[in-house]
Amino acid sequence: MTNNIDNRIIESRKSKGFTQKYLAEKMNISLPTMNHYETGKRIPGSDFLARLAKVVDCNPGWLLSGEGDMQTNECYTSSHPPPEGFVLVPRYNIEASAGGGSVIHSEQVVDHLAFKTDWVHKELGTDPKNLLLIHSIGDSMEPTIRSGDLLLVDRNKSRMKGDGIYLINLDDGLMVKRIEWLLDGSVVIRGDNTVVSREQVVSSTDLEKLHILGRVVWVGSKI
Prior knowledge:
By secondary structure, this protein is an alpha+beta fold. It is built from six helices and nine strands, in the order αααααββαβββββββ. The protein has a nine-stranded mixed beta sheet. The longest helix has 11 residues, at 5-15. The protein is elongated and about 60 Å long.
């Protein structure tokens, strides 16, 4: 999805008459960082591209892949589908803690990010309707997941099996943790950052306290 993204960033900026400096200010990043994006020295993360599509009012699918038209005035909803070959995944204004837990305050969809439908089916092996995007906060899952990373979560119940990284709710806290299932039916919850994270064991008799909401299947990191 990153092939020639640098050229498309430049094209989208110029279509609005923005200077590189002005766009950097609008995106709240440094001018050198914007320059690195436009020269291909750095590959922008998915969160940056989603925000950029809104700032320059361009088609997120085009920005990601170069396919389709650059400009679009269409508001994509369930009744107005995205460009052919793409699916728009909702991003919620929910932050899942990779630390000690974060209470859900709102589940409002703030925007959407486009993913190629073939990639979702072939690489993730899931139905796009099961996906959602949220942000991570905290450092207990570093280096796998950093604070501010964009997480693609699969809510398909068939994927909520086996060891892996999951979005969970435990003790009224929304967290992203690595889960390991033990033979006695208990569950070990841990972070990848062993310096700051402590292992927690949920016994088989207390599993009703653990709510598994989805499996993390993709991470978009900021640069």
